[in-house]
Amino acid sequence: MSRAPLLDIRRLSRDYASGGLLGGKHVTRALDDLSMSVAPGTIHGIVGESGCGKSTLARLVMALDRPTSGSVHFGGEDLFRLSARDLKRKRRDFQMVFQDPFGSLDPRQTVGRIVAEPLHVLEGKPGKAERRDRVAAMLEAVGLAPDHAARYPHAFSGGQRQRIAIARALITEPKLVVADEAVSALDLSVQAQVLNLLMDLRDRRGVTFLFITHNLAVVDAVADRVGVMYRGRLVESGPAQAVFARPLHPYTRLLADAEPDVTRFGRPDRPPVAVAEPIDFGVGCSFRNRCPLAVARCTAERPELRELEGGPEVRERLTACHRAEGLLETNTPG
Amino acid sequence: MTPPLLRIEDLAISIDSTHGGRQPILTDIDVALHAGETLGIVGESGSGKSLLSLAIMGLLPAAAHATGRILLEGRDLLGMDEDTLCTVRGRNIGMIFQEPLTALNPAMTVGDQIAEGLVVQEGLSWRAARREAVTLLDRVRMPDAARLSRAYPHALSGGQRQRVGIAIALAMKPALMIADEPTTALDVTVQAEVLDILDDLTRDAGMALILVSHDLGVIARMCARTLVLYAGRRMEEGATRDVLTAPLNPYTRGLLRAVPRRQAAGGRLSTIPGTVPSFAALPPGCCFSDRCPDVIVACHAGEPAWTPAAPGRGVRCLRAHGEAAS
Predict the structure, then answer these.
(1) To bridge B43 with a disulfide, which of A45, B49, B250, B303 should be the other Cys (CB 3.0-4.6 Å)?
(2) What are B235-263's pLDDT values in tens digits?
(3) What's the alpha-carbon Rg for chain B, to the nearest Å?
(4) Which ipTM did the prediction report?
(5) Alpha carbon distance B223, A87 (integer Å)
(6) CA distances in angstroms from B65 to A322, B52, B86, listed in the order given
């Protein structure tokens, strides 16, 4: 990547303590030494299953939580070293869109008030007329009509509500929008409309998206780059198209094989997908109990993210697998 | 040919509206399903697909009014009193729900929840029923079934809970299983395993399956036949491969095009303009006419009739015959 990253995450870890009372204290590492960077004006997908730490990552990037160790640099500044006042000022530059368009909008507020809400917390809060103009412009930008501002959320469908949530996120003209399962609750015909909107906002306004989802097809359709997470760690990253066409980590391949496809009829020929419960091994590769390629080395030594030697198909790609070279040979180009 | 296990004839369901009067939801539903068959019901939110599965289970809310017939092994479920329905449910029809956490009782071990039906319906002793519960958990590939049968739902993962849900539905060896979005809340790898389990059950036990889903990939994976619903109407029905590779109805075509997939650089996904209309605000004529790319004047004049296109294949669209020929 030639441009300086907008978001630079360095060795980020987050532990949660649980238990107490009857059982002993237990520490769960939700995010484990994760490093990644996001270039401005791109859609960066994060894929993983429940419990992989993707929502913890979203909370940390939004500075809604503090890491156990590591840092998040946004536009060159370390978010967790800013004073409370500076952080508050910085918040206009990163906003979030949540999964549930029914739960994330206050039913007693008009759409205009909901969309304008982030402006109220800004320093140098714009005047009433300017707020109204900006809300109207933003509603148009997400494909709604300015006169929708006077209505209440219940008057809108799921897809329209998600547009309202996106308008609210964009009203402060943020550089980064974190979208956590933002289209997962939407119907197919509406989901495509919202995905197109995100691509338009990237292309026309240069908005950067951290797009978090469990749905590979959605990421494949819109993301420029993608990171695959497993048990709090990044196990593979690279250009989205290349990653899904030729996975360099067995977990990515497992995900791709498991995803139903409208062009695959009946039961797939593959052996049944093995779903072992993810186990916290402490040492070695945490995927090894589900991995068809695991060898002795995977038990002893934790694989770190690394580049592979090879041609253009591995350019700008990273994988955390000891056996990635073998995977590259056996993978047929998709 | 043997009579079908399930035969739905001319079913219509309306719901009391808050403004008085009744709002029609499902209209003109006809379904025939034989033992061992798998039928996928596809539709977006507001298509009436969940109401249809509740109707087959005899679980319609009090505000709903059904006309027509739902025949299960020749007996009309719509005319049955609650006591008779109770034995049909569970014994003849099992149901798997979308959200396994809310469908389970949080204050009862999962083994007892599976055993409960066996005690009440089959008159087994609790001891025997609990043993049977462990066997059922084994069948749905629950790891360490004996130990986990004594666990409470909160201690299980989403995939394990859904396996419990399937085990409960299986306990009575129902002839028909209705699964309403059974894997929507699950991760893809867990989903793949749950679908494999359901697939085994239809193959080995000859159980008929109705799978309700908005996910066309899941339908392609699981179901031999597919019925596409929109705004409470049948839009298209046929062998799944035919419906998904050579759709006759513009709505099915639109859905298939909207499935997210990578576009050429700078390209955009295909969409269906607008949103699913509410039942109170359907357009005149064909219910899809306000969003349809192939609409002609005649589409607004009246609701197109359901038209058989081939054996086992039908469509509701004025323009389908031209499309089928081309």
Answers:
(1) B49
(2) 999 999 999 999 999 999 999 999 998 88
(3) 21
(4) 0.84
(5) 53
(6) 62, 12, 19
Q: Where are the alpha helices (DSSP H) in chain A?
A: 54-61, 84-90, 111-120, 128-141, 158-170, 188-205, 216-222, 240-245, 250-258, 296-300, 324-330
Q: How far apart are CA B258 and CA B273, in angstroms?
A: 11
How many angstroms separate the first and last alpha carbons of chain A?
25
Which of B47, B154, B189, B200 to mutate against chain A (most A CBs within 10 Å)? B189
Looking up tokens 């009193």 gives B81
Same domain, A212 and A128: yes
pLDDT of residue A333: 47
A222 and A300 fall within a common domain: no
| B228–A contact, CB cutoff 8 A | no
pLDDT in tens, A224-252: 999 999 989 999 999 999 999 899 999 99
Pair of tokens at residue B224 = 């031999």
**pLDDT at residue B183, as a whole number:** 86
Average pLDDT of chain A, as a whole number:
88
Segment B91-116, tens digit of pLDDT: 899 999 887 778 899 999 999 999 99
Q: Please provide the CATH number assigned to the domain covering B6-223.
A: 3.40.50.300
CB spacing of B260 vs A214 below 8 angstroms:
no
A25 touches chain B (CB under 8 A): no
Amino acid at B294: D
pLDDT at A310: 81
> What distance in Å separates the CA atoms of residue A235 and residue A24, rounded to the nearest whole number?
31
Stretch(es) of chain B classified as CATH 3.40.50.300: 6-223
Contact yes or no for A273 and B189 at CB 8 A: yes
Considering its fold, how many domains does chain A have in total?
2
Supply the CATH number for residue A133's domain: 3.40.50.300
Joined together, the tokens standing for residue A72 give 């998040």
Q: Kindly determine whether residue A187 and residue B270, on different chains, have CB atoms separated by under 8 Å.
A: no
pLDDT at A49: 86
Cα B163 to Cα A246: distance, rounded to the nearest angstrom: 32
Domain of residue A105 covers 1-17+27-245
Q: Does the distance separating the beta carbons of B189 and A258 come in below 8 Å?
A: yes
Q: Which chain A residue has its CA at the smallest distance from B272's CA?
A: A189
CA nearest neighbour of A31 among A82, A71, A87: A71
One domain for residues A286 and A235: no
